[in-house]
From TrEMBL:
Organism: Epibacterium ulvae
TM segment ranges: none
UniProt keyword annotations, A-Z: Iron, Iron-sulfur, Metal-binding
SUPFAM superfamilies: Aconitase B, N-terminal domain, Aconitase iron-sulfur domain, LeuD/IlvD-like
GO molecular function annotation: 2-methylisocitrate dehydratase activity; 4 iron, 4 sulfur cluster binding; aconitate hydratase activity; metal ion binding
Domain Aconitase B HEAT-like: 6-162
GO cellular component assignments: cytosol
Protein name: Aconitase
Gene Ontology biological process terms from the UniProt entry: propionate catabolic process, 2-methylcitrate cycle; tricarboxylic acid cycle
Length: 930
């Protein structure tokens, strides 16, 4: 059978699922289409022509290469196709975005046929996705005297690819659709358990919210044909938890506009909103598609006659509604006045200027942020090549420089890595900056989308600016099912060829790793001045400043070595007092959120960088704090380390990178060895005193300051999803932090989970030490609830084996992972035993393994969102409560939350993760488990 008949069979299968033919990315199949189009008598000719025009993916896919080559034949008259004129062939080339199409257009523009060259040049003037090989050809042709090349460069220098686009419509009519009340996690828009289908956009679109919601949205579109649907988080924030490009893709698929008539299921320009605005990382993803993200502010705190906020019985502010956003409400967005208006435009409802900054408006005009990023680079290249002054076309980057004001840590990093800013300018928070990216991480449930984005923007190799990049396999580590077997090797091959260090070697030369991506990125970040971009909201490192991002922004960072964003404001967190012996550092993390809310009332961390002065806590343990800041709704976190501690962290990173090299994971460019060399150079700078560890200036300006009093942390803390709170906006947030005594020692626990990126080697040792203690005290340890343990990395397991801790874990385990025979199906039932799972994300991801529906789970992970770790039943809501490792272990043994006395006895003599706040002078105190 041919590839084409196989494709027809797949089409019939998809019909039974209510799906259209899958977009074609395979060059061999596309060549069959071309052959059948050329054969006038072929029975499949008409369908092949339709698939070729409307269902072949652009960019650098192998299909795009074949399509571009055939269109070139048509333009040159080598092939004759009645249905595709020369003009239409050029139109199709113009929608292919880059890669092979640019090569063909350059061939034609720089060719001998003047008429064809003129047409090709006109198309090229609309294109922005050009890379070095393309611009080098243009430059060489111009220097050789080509008038056509000169004309193209002159157009680029004027940025006509942007200036000739239609302006953004002044008035945009929208009709509301409330997706839910309270914070809306991106899991609602793109569930983690459907991650396998994200690269199949039409199929994945069927998982957004619910089938009923999709039908309601379609009904609204029919009722209001001239309006755009605005998806709303009522009484909450839209897009919390992750950037998730697939979430925005789904919203755009159901409510946005078609990007191109010749590219299937790629929609842009969604409109999303939230009573409390949009999560910062999700807002970035909205910008990738040229969408609009609104902060509605339709609920405000009620005040009395004196202007004081009125509180309810729980001590929370009473909210009142300024205007209704009930589903089906028609409103108008005025992009010029930047106001949200009622249906007839007579009443102003909200100021939405923050959604229509000059930069965001450019994204909307261009159909997404990529076109602007590439367009700016192209304009700069053209002006420099022509030797002319570059006309100001794009909105100037906002540069804020406050004389006499020092710099926060994040401001220092941005100033150090800024690209294209005013020479000599010192920039403060609020400035818009193009910034060099040092480290990039791609994870496996969004990686296929990242590879698609790279293909779409015609990128073929990682930018030389990037020091190191890693493709993980941790999000699909739990179950090696047919979906993973189909997707992961394909992903690893693409990324390995692109230049990333990959968890799985396409040639099978080294053992496939499923180490948690954040742990690996934490190790390969070897400079406290680095900028890191990763495809997950928990891209938060203990060195440098890291930002979680959508798959597209990750692709952009890989391709260009840059990211564009405003310098965020910072909140300074310091510590005082003494940490009690029976407390674990995870309790300090929880207490930070609690004490912040007590001190400020509102979440001052949201959308800002947390500058945490940990100082004496080494990289693995400090990462516990920075990782958690994603759930604090912070944009990022900066960890301030003392010189001695930073050197220790860098030495640890070097040793782990060396292990990766020993396993054969380095590539031809010796990227990993380069990172070790960089770490050595940084250590030398610190030791010599030439460049001490990063610190903020004494006169830096912070949005707020939080002082965490360790003396107040007297018992373990638990983050509770508070699933039955009468106020839905208070459910599933990370703001409800309770002491373990709140539960009275009798809250039933159905399953315990120690794992995900929030644990380190010390946590694994704590599990082993607790089992030893309880065994010595009771003679035998019996679990009254299942305990799932997933180490973050293989290195940790190797070290535990060497130190004897793995033996006791094995002795109590009823299941131990086997990489030779990995699980092919997700576990649906749990026994009251210890499960030693494969390193990786496991239950925290919710895309493969889950607890039983309706369970109460106590976990060390970071996710307590509805349906993530555990789903609801009709009778009982699933709960995912978050706590320290010793609390989780003891709760699984008891089958309930412990009393303070039970907990204190169980951890007596155990080496918990300790923390001593840094002194005013550099301290040499090191954290435990180093």
């Amino acid at each position: 059978m041919s590839l084409y008949t196989d494709y027809l069979a797949e089409i019939e299968t998809r019909k039974t699922q209510g799906l259209n033919p899958k977009p074609i990315d395979d060059g061999a199949l596309t060549q069959e289409l071309v052959d059948q189009i050329k054969d006038q008598g072929n029975a499949y000719r008409a369908d092949s022509l339709n698939f070729f025009i409307y269902n072949t993916l652009p960019g650098t896919t192998s299909a795009a290469g074949v399509k571009a080559a055939f269109l070139k034949e048509i333009v040159l008259g080598v092939a004759q196709v009645e249905e595709i004129s020369v003009e239409f062939a050029f139109e199709l080339l113009s929608h292919m975005k880059g890669g092979p199409s640019i090569e063909v257009l350059l061939d034609l523009a720089l060719g001998d046929d003047a008429a064809i060259a003129a047409q090709a040049a006109d198309v090229l003037k609309t294109q922005v996705f050009l890379y070095d090989a393309d611009t080098d050809r243009l430059k060489a042709a111009y220097e050789a005297g080509s008038a056509v090349a000169k004309g193209i460069l002159e157009s680029y220098a004027k940025a006509e690819f942007y200036t000739k686009l239609p302006e953004l419509e002044e008035e945009i009519e929208v009709v509301t659709y409330i997706a839910g009340e309270g914070d809306i996690s991106t899991d609602l828009l793109s569930p983690g358990n459907q991650a396998h289908s994200r690269s199949d956009r039409e199929l994945h679109g069927k998982c957004m919210i619910s089938e009923a919601a999709q039908q309601e949205i379609e009904a609204l579109k029919l009722k209001h044909p001239g309006a755009r649907i605005m998806l709303i988080a009522e009484k909450g924030t839209m897009g919390v938890g992750s950037s998730r490009m697939s979430g925005v893709n789904n919203v755009a698929l159901w409510t946005g506009k078609k990007a191109s008539p010749y590219v299937p299921f790629v929609n842009i320009a969604p409109v999303v909103a939230g009573t409390n605005g949009i999560s910062p990382i999700f807002q970035t993803t909205v910008g990738v598609t040229g969408g609009i993200g609104l902060d509605l502010k339709n609920w405000v705190k009620k005040t009395d006659e004196d202007g004081k906020v009125i509180l309810n019985n729980d001590g929370n502010p009473v909210l009142e509604q300024k205007f209704s956003v009930e589903t089906g409400t028609v409103m108008k967005i005025n992009s010029k006045t930047k106001k949200l208006l009622n249906a007839d435009g007579s009443e102003e409802l909200a100021d939405i200027a923050s959604a229509f900054t000059p930069q965001k408006t450019e994204f909307m005009v261009a159909g997404g942020s990529y076109a602007i990023v590439f367009g700016k680079k192209l304009q700069t290249f053209a002006a420099e090549t022509l030797g002319v002054e570059m006309p100001r076309v794009f909105a100037p980057s906002k540069e804020i420089s406050n004389e006499g004001q020092g710099l926060t840590a994040v401001e220092k990093i941005f100033n150090r890595n800024a690209v294209g800013t005013t020479p000599g300018a010192t920039l403060h928070a609020g400035s818009d900056v193009r910034v060099k990216v040092n480290i990039v991480g791609s994870q496996d449930t969004t990686g296929l989308m990242t590879s698609q984005e790279l293909e779409a923007m015609a990128a073929t190799v990682i930018s030389p600016v990037v020091d190191g990049a890693y493709q993980s396999g941790c999000h699909t580590a739990s179950v090696w099912d047919k979906k993973a077997q189909a997707n992961i090797p394909k992903l690893m091959k693409f990324m390995n060829n692109f230049g990333l260090i990959t968890a799985r070697d396409p040639e099978g030369s080294y053992h496939s790793m499923t180490d948690v991506i954040h742990k690996v990125l934490n190790d390969i970040t070897v400079d406290d001045w680095d900028v890191i971009i990763g495809g997950d909201s928990h891209t938060r490192m203990s060195k440098g400043v890291a930002f979680g991002a959508d798959s597209g922004t990750v692709a952009l960072a890989l391709a260009t070595g840059e990211a564009t964003m405003p310098i965020p404001e910072s909140v300074k967190v310091t510590f005082k007092g003494t940490m009690a012996d029976h407390m674990d550092f995870r309790d300090v993390v929880h207490a930070t959120q609690l004490q912040m809310l007590d001190q400020h009332g509102d979440n001052v961390f949201q959308g800002r960088v947390i500058e945490v002065h940990i100082g004496t806590l080494l990289a693995d343990q400090a990462f516990t704090f920075t990782d958690w800041t994603a759930e604090m709704k912070a944009k990022a976190s900066i960890c301030i380390s003392n010189d001695e501690t930073l050197i220790g962290s860098l030495e640890l990173a070097k040793s782990r990178i060396a292990i990766m090299i020993e396993k054969g994971m380095d590539n031809e460019g010796k990227v990993l060895q380069g990172l070790i060399d960089k770490a050595d150079a940084r250590i030398a700078e610190i030791q010599s005193g030439d460049k001490p560890a990063l610190t903020a200036d004494d006169n830096a300006k912070y949005f707020a300051e939080v002082v965490v009093d360790l003396d107040k942390i007297v018992e373990p803390m638990i983050a509770d999803p508070d699933v039955n709170n009468a106020d839905v906006s208070k459910r599933y947030t990370h703001d409800t932090i309770r002491p373990v005594s709140y539960y009275g020692g009798d809250k039933k626990v159905d399953l315990g989970f120690v794992g995900s990126c929030m644990v380190h080697k010390g946590d694994m040792k704590i599990v082993a030490q607790m089992l030893k203690n309880l065994e010595a005290d009771q003679g035998k340890v019996e679990f009254k609830a299942p305990l799932v343990v997933a180490a973050p990395t293989y290195n940790i397991i190797d070290e535990l084996k060497e130190e004897g801790d793995w033996d006791i874990l094995q002795r109590y385990s009823g299941f131990e992972f086997d990489d030779l025979f990995p699980k092919s199906q997700a576990r649906t039932e749990y026994e009251n035993i210890l499960y030693l799972e494969r390193p990786g994300c496991n239950l925290c991801m919710g895309n493969q393994e889950k607890a039983a529906k309706g369970d109460t789970v106590l976990a060390t992970s970071t996710r307590l969102f509805q349906g993530r770790v555990v789903e609801d039943t009709a009778e009982k809501k699933g709960e995912s409560l978050l706590a320290s490792t010793p609390v989780v272990v003891l709760s699984a043994i008891l089958g309930r939350t412990p009393t303070v006395a039970e907990y204190t006895k169980a951890v007596d003599g155990i080496d918990l993760t300790k923390f001593a706040p840094p002194l005013q002078v550099p301290s040499t105190t090191k954290s435990a488990h180093f």
